[in-house]
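Comment on the following before class.
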Amino acid sequence: MATHFIGDTAALTGRTLRHVTRSPDTIITTAVMPIAMMLMFVYVFGGAIDTGSVSYVNYMLPGILLITIASGIAYTAFRLFTDMQGGIFERFQSMPIARSGVLWAHVLTSLVANVLSLVVVVGVALLMGFRSGAGVGAWLAVAGILILFTLALTWIAVIPGLSATSVEGASAFSYPLIFLPFLSSAFVPTDTMPGPVRWFAEHQPVTSIVNTIRDLLTGQPVGNDVWTALAWCVGILVVAYAFAMATYRRKIS
């Protein structure tokens, strides 16, 4: 059964990946907005923000990476919505394949596409002066957190992708997720914020994830934020997966 699921998922992932390779503009579009934000914040606002001894591009890159993921998963919802409207799901149901493999194919394709977008963004950050003294272990830890965050948000994207009634509705859910890093420690230290905003910023998931990635990239000791970040990522992933599968079962029943 496990071999059957893996083989079906691999074949279906190949199908969705071909769709991405035929329209590489989706990866470029995903990376353009975060890169534009990075240029604006570093060269327009960066000089007015005190981040101590850390250069501003180093300080804000973790937040930009999360925005890149949040904007990229909108395409996952779009591709799922397109498949639903095109009747491909009904065709898959008539075939002897693992039903959950259809969703996992879209999720894994999202993961690959987002990793490529993240590589592009990091490349531009290097051209802008980003430097890191992190070792291989720290970089692997950063990659692991970003992958976990991508999976969590992608399973959230599956829900509107399956249940939306229009293309706009399928992708509109990503806007609050893109905005969330602005109410965190991603771009300015939280101690500069007024009371209620500061409380929200310090207790929402993005801040702990950003702080953990920033500490890893700058070679600083990672405190309790890493456990909070992992708890948020795993918690969101589990809940989103459960809701996505429930939505899928209703759709195909």
Observations:
- The mean pLDDT is 84.
- The chain is about 80% helix and 0% strand.
- The longest helix spans residues 56-86.
- The two ends are 21 Å apart (CA to CA).
